[in-house]
Write a structure and sequence with these properties.
Blueprint (H helix, E strand, L loop, with lengths): L2 E3 L6 H12 L18 H13 L3 H9 L3 E6 L2 E8 L7 E6 L12 H6 L12 E6 L17 H15 L5 E5 L2 H12 L4 E6 L18 H17 L1 H8 L1 H10 L1 H14 L13 H14 L2 H12 L11 E9 L9 H7 E8 L7 H4 L1 H12 L4
Parallel strand pairs: 4-5, 4-6, 6-7, 7-8, 8-9
Antiparallel strand pairs: 1-2, 2-3, 3-5
Helix pairs in contact: 1-2, 2-10, 5-6, 8-12, 9-10, 9-12, 10-11
């Protein structure tokens, strides 16, 4: 299938319309002295929206994004956008890196240079990668599907074709977090003939076999499952609505940029290692570049449908099943779910387990150097 160069170039009229909508925001009220307890804080969202309207420079961010090598191709009838940054070293290893929600391909902009050109960033050129960062279908500049059923396992199968058929790689590695970790797990599980190893920052799928003959849960595993249940009750409202009625949600978020910003920004604050100050980890420009990508591509509705499709297809391993390819896992302390190693080893062939001193759900943005070092260390013996 043909692979064509692609450049991001959002029209002035779209940016002008965005700013006009921001200027007409109809603000809700807020109970006094409640901070972020009820959701996104009104004072901060107003501050962010005003910056977005008056100061944020999309063209500068567009130039940054376009400094990478962008392409589009078709996989199973879907137009897929991706960055393909060729490695600078004697034998670059192909690596597909997958984002999650509410991220985009932009989440990887700090780690792409470090992975593709380590020699220019204090590393060894022997550790270079050909880095492929696709936008999942329904995200960013990839096409929206017009059929039911496109879940994370289906995306893993798409990536296997993207890497082997469209890009011609016989063997490659995979890395991801959030939904990208599930996509990566599927690559390792179903396409082990092509995938040399997988690296993940999240261990949520698949669910290991827990039936007759399986090892009893350890105290740490029981604690993990209880913490997951508690978290879902306290913080999982977004997932429930996106997994049940994403279309209803999309009318508001696709029409109001302030509403879109509030919906996304709360996750960056809650899921990161920011101590309650979201700008301790992310600049306004970083946050707004991600939000603007959702806005200009009108992809918030299509992105949330991934929850609907995936939550209807539980991935439960059968007795004797396991992801057999080598796996490296980086555990960041502020990640949504922090599993013990023995839980991961039920489903994965864990060859490297790294407990990080800092960082959260958005590791590629929060701790790019630590993440890249771990990825290099894991894949080095697999080259």
């Amino acid at each position: 299938m043909a692979v064509e160069q692609f450049k991001i170039d959002i029209s002035d009229s779209v940016i002008e319309d965005l700013k006009a909508r921001l200027s007409r925001t109809r603000w809700p009220d807020e109970l006094p002295d409640t901070g972020w307890d009820y959701g996104s804080n009104l004072e901060y969202v107003k501050e962010l929206v005003e910056y977005w309207r008056t100061t944020f420079d999309w063209r500068a961010q567009e130039d940054l994004i376009n400094s990478f090598s962008h392409f589009k191709t078709e996989v199973d009838g879907l137009g897929i956008h991706f960055i393909h940054q060729k490695g600078k070293g004697p034998n670059p290893m192909p690596l597909v890196v997958t984002h999650g929600w509410p991220g985009t391909f932009f989440e990887m902009h700090k780690i792409i240079p470090l992975l593709s050109d380590p020699g220019s960033h204090g590393g060894d050129p022997d550790d270079s990668f050909d880095v492929v960062v696709p936008s999942m279908p329904g995200y960013g500049f990839s096409s929206h599907t017009n059929k039911r059923g496109l879940d994370v396992l289906s995306i893993g199968d798409l990536w296997a074709k993207l890497m082997s058929e469209n890009l011609g790689y016989k063997q490659f590695g995979a890395q991801g977090g959030d939904w990208g970790a599930s996509v990566t797990a599927q690559l390792g599980f179903a396409h082990g003939d092509k995938v040399t190893g997988i690296h993940s920052t999240s261990v949520t799928r698949p669910t290991p076999y827990m039936g007759s003959g399986s090892r009893a849960l350890s105290d740490a595993e029981r604690e993990l499952l209880q913490k997951r249940a508690d978290w879902q009750a306290a913080e999982g409202g977004y997932s429930h609505i996106q997994g049940t009625k994403p279309q209803t949600l999309s009318y508001g978020l696709n029409d109001s940029p302030a509403g879109l910003a509030a919906w996304i920004i709360e996750k960056y604050r809650t899921w990161s290692d920011c101590g309650g100050d979201v700008e301790k980890r992310f600049t306004k420009d970083e946050l707004l570049t991600t939000i603007t990508i959702y806005w200009v591509t009108q992809s918030i509705g299509s992105s949330t449908k991934l929850y609907y499709e995936t939550l209807r297809k539980p991935w439960d391993l059968k007795e004797g099943e396991k992801i057999e390819v080598p796996c490296g896992i980086a555990v960041f302390p502020a990640e949504i779910s922090v599993p013990p190693r023995e839980w991961a080893e039920r489903s994965y062939n864990v060859q490297q387990w790294t407990v990080m001193p800092a960082g959260g759900h958005f590791a590629a943005l929060e701790e790019p150097d630590r993440l890249v070092e771990d990825v290099r260390n894991f894949f080095r013996p697999l080259r």
